[in-house]
């Protein structure tokens, strides 16, 4: 009796959602024992009173579910840091909240002539047409522009019936193009915590149970406004993060420029190493078997690796320039001075011969003099050639080393008339370097750039997803057999990212075509050298195999 009298008093949506129970507990308990979660009256209050209780319980339940949905949406929005994906989430969740068939988002931006709205994202469950981003000036002529300027919410039952007193009008061009019918529209400002309008959120065509467009009600407006508040904060956070990422990007690029200006000879090296290292990491991501079959780098880790690779040589700014750019064994200008001393010695020997003949009363013999000049010129030429050869940063041959030993005993006359050795101890030490152009002290100074890099990078307040940059760069000269530097780490202590960077660094050093002091090593020979390094325990053989099989090296090699 009570149920029958109550049914006719309930709204359609309430009656449809109602499930009867014989006793509590339940959401609403009327005229029965047991607790009611949302409304409770143990005595029968009459049909009208019971209907009022049921309606009140239904509204409380709907509010609670709406809050639960909003909380769920808030968590989803807070976890997304990419702005484009965030916009998609806002529309997807927002349309679900208010049961809208379609929606779009405009972003408020500064244009050349004033504020503009960027049509940034759209969704439509009925039609699927490609869309293009475009900008329009902020103006009250459009509904989005009106809301952006005034901060007011528009809830329009039928956009084709907007009264003449309204300053805005509906643009039917999309409807005409797509064969669509826009009816109801809810236009809401997206604001941050400071009240600044970040954009405009539009929901189109709320659908009833039958899928027919109907106006948006007050409840949907309240939900949409709550969503817009959450979305505005999430958008502001995403924008701040994007700004921070852009700041880091510019900082890294500026740092690379500083490195290359300090050492122009290796210009482009950092960028190529970054391309190769990231390329190798991406190839690891595609590997399904072997030791790295389960290793995967996220997009954030790839970005971290790219920055570490770009900055891996930044510590070179702490190395003396004369050491950093030293391409020969002797300092600039020193070879010319030593050659001049050899030439001076040749002249001094000729003058001594002339003086000896004059003091002995011997007459001048043109033939003997010419033979002497030829012999001295030949000797001087051989000495000069040996000096030039020994100054090159190649492996010092025994023949050249023996020539240096003979040259050590040669002397010339200084400006003050005193005899002095042509080669000073520092010259002899430099020219006696067995391989390369650096002395042991200079080599250690060059190697110190790794520690300088770490100390510099460790002082930067990186975000959490970039915190590994200093450690990755710090280990890129370590070797699996413990013979690297500066810490002589063993394989287990060297990050995979650093091992990948080591391969890229060695490969680019071998194949670089812009080094004035050496010719580029051919690709095949470079890969053979890396293979030997792997056999000797310098680089990771499994990573090198991926590097070769995936042809990662093609990223920096000139097109044939």
Number of domains: 4
Q: Give me the strand/helix succession.
A: HHEEHHEEEHEHEEEHHHHHHHEEHHHHHH
Q: Mean of residue pLDDT? A: 85
What coarse outline follows from CA principal-axis ratios? elongated
| Beta-strand share of residues | 5-15%
Rg, Å, rounded: 40 Å
CATH class bucket of the largest domain? Mainly Alpha
Q: Which stretches are low in confidence, meaning pLDDT under 50 for 5 or more residues running?
A: none
Oligomer: single chain
Quantity of strands, as a count = 11
Give the structural class: alpha+beta
Give the CATH topology of the largest domain. Answer: Hypothetical protein af1432
Report the total helices. 19
Estimate percent helicity.
40-55%
What composes the largest sheet?
A: 7 strands, antiparallel
Distance between the termini: 91 Å
Give the CATH architecture of the largest domain. Orthogonal Bundle
Fourth CATH level, the homologous superfamily of the largest domain:
Hypothetical protein af1432
Describe it for me?
The protein starts with a helix and ends in an 11-residue tail after the last helix. The strands form three sheets. Strands 3, 4, 5, 6, 7, 8 and 9 form a seven-stranded antiparallel sheet that branches. Strands 1-2 form a two-stranded parallel ribbon. Strands 10-11 form a two-stranded antiparallel ribbon. It is of the alpha+beta class. The longest helix is centred in the middle third of the chain and has 45 residues, at 218-262. It has four domains: 2-73, no CATH class; 80-241, 2-Layer Sandwich (Beta-Lactamase); 263-322 and 442-555, Hypothetical protein af1432 (Orthogonal Bundle), CATH 1.10.3210; 334-437. It is elongated, with a radius of gyration of 40 Å. 51% of the residues lie in helices and 12% in strands. The model has no long low-confidence stretch (mean pLDDT 85).
């Amino acid at each position: 009796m009570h149920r029958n009298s109550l049914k006719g008093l309930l709204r359609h949506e309430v009656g449809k959602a109602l499930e009867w129970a014989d006793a509590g507990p339940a959401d609403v308990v009327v005229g029965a024992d047991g607790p009611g979660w949302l409304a409770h009256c143990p005595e029968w209050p009459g049909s009208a009173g019971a209907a009022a209780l049921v309606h009140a319980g239904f509204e409380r339940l709907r509010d609670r579910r709406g809050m639960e949905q909003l909380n769920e949406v808030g968590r989803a929005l807070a976890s997304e840091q990419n702005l484009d994906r965030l916009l998609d989430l806002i529309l997807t969740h927002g349309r679900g909240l208010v049961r809208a068939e379609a929606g779009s988002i405009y972003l408020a931006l500064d244009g050349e002539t004033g504020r503009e709205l960027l049509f940034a994202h759209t969704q439509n469950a009925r039609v699927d047409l490609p869309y293009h981003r475009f900008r329009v000036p902020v103006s009250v002529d459009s509904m989005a522009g009106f809301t952006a300027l005034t901060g007011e919410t528009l809830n329009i039952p039928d956009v084709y019936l907007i009264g003449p007193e309204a300053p805005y009008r509906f643009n039917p061009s999309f409807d005409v193009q797509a064969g669509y019918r826009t009816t109801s529209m809810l236009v809401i400002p997206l604001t941050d915590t400071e009240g600044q309008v970040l954009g405009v959120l539009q929901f189109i065509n709320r659908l009833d149970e039958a899928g027919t467009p109907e106006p948006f009600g007050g409840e949907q407006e309240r939900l949409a406004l709550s969503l817009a508040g959450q979305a505005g904060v999430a958008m502001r956070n995403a924008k701040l993060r994007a700004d921070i990422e852009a700041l880091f990007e510019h900082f890294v690029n500026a740092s690379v420029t500083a490195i290359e200006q300090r050492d122009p000879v290796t210009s482009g090296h950092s960028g190529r190493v970054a391309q190769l290292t990231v390329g190798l990491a991406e190839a690891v991501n595609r590997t399904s078997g072997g030791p790295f079959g389960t290793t995967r780098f996220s997009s954030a880790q790839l970005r971290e690796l790219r920055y570490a690779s770009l900055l891996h040589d930044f510590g070179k700014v702490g190395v003396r320039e004369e050491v950093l750019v030293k391409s020969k064994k002797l300092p600039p200008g020193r070879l010319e001075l030593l050659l001049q001393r050899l030439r001076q010695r040749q002249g001094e020997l000729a003058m001594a011969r002339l003086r000896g003949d004059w003091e002995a009363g011997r007459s001048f013999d043109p033939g003997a003099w010419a033979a002497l000049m030829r012999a001295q010129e030949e000797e001087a030429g051989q000495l000069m050639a040996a000096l030039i050869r020994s100054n090159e940063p190649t492996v010092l041959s025994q023949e050249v080393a023996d020539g240096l030993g003979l040259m050590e005993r040669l002397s010339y006359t200084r400006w003050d008339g005193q005899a002095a050795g042509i080669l000073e101890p520092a010259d002899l030490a430099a020219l006696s370097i067995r391989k390369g152009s650096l002395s042991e002290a200079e080599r250690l100074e060059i190697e110190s750039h790794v520690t300088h890099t770490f100390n510099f990078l460790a002082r930067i307040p990186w975000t959490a997803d970039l915190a590994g940059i200093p450690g990755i760069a710090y280990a890129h000269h370590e070797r699996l057999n413990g013979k690297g530097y500066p810490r002589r780490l063993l394989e287990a202590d060297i990050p995979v990212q650093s091992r990948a960077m080591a391969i890229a660094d060695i490969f680019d050093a071998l194949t670089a075509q812009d080094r004035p002091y050496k010719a580029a090593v051919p690709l095949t020979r470079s890969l053979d050298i890396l293979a030997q390094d792997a056999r000797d325990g310098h680089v990771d053989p499994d990573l090198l195999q991926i590097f070769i099989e995936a042809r990662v090296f093609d990223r920096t090699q000139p097109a044939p």
